[in-house]
Write a structure and sequence with these properties.
single chain; 91 residues; alpha+beta; YaeB-like fold; 2 helices; 46% strand; globular
Length: 91
């Protein structure tokens, strides 16, 4: 999955800021080549370390072409150590 475009609005920007994140930080997480992405239908979680802190970004995505997607970040929060994702993509 290659995020090439982001959809930002007043709501998701404010929500991410409320949790200590920012547009720039969310985009860094989603563009990190070492990111772990777990999908369930069109909802996904991305985890990456940015500036020595682990972050999780939950986002919707829309395929554009090939592996390129448009992302709508929903929320962002620091990842707790030892936390595991329970969502797995069904084959």
């Amino acid at each position: 999955m290659n995020v090439v475009e982001f959809i930002w609005g007043e709501w998701n920007t404010a929500h991410i800021t409320k949790h200590g994140g920012s547009q720039d930080l969310a985009e860094q997480v989603l563009r990190d080549p070492a990111v772990t992405v777990i999908t369930a239908h069109r909802l996904a979680q991305a985890r990456a370390t940015v500036v020595t802190k682990d972050w999780t970004v939950v986002f919707n995505f829309e395929p554009i072409q090939g592996t390129n997607v448009r992302a709508y970040p929903i929320t962002m929060y620091p990842t707790k150590r030892g936390s595991r994702t329970t969502h797995r993509r069904k084959p």
